[in-house]
Design a protein that fits this description.
The protein is mainly alpha-helical.
Length: 59
């Protein structure tokens, strides 16, 4: 188990029944990077990955 798995499991157990929009998620990620600027690059990489999930891998 990776360390991040615990946080993901907590997120799922606490908020797993909620429905959120990507706009809401983007706001939370922006708030997080404002508070924790050292995590700007990993958050940017996650956001980019999520944004491109449906892209054709051959593009």
């Amino acid at each position: 188990m990776y360390f991040t798995d615990r946080g993901i499991e907590e997120l799922s157990s606490r908020r797993g029944e909620e429905e959120v929009t990507f706009a809401w998620l983007a706001e939370r990620l922006s708030e997080f990077t404002d508070i924790h600027p050292d995590f700007e690059v990993p958050v940017e990489r996650l956001a980019t990955w999520l944004a491109r999930l449906d892209d054709d891998p051959e593009d």
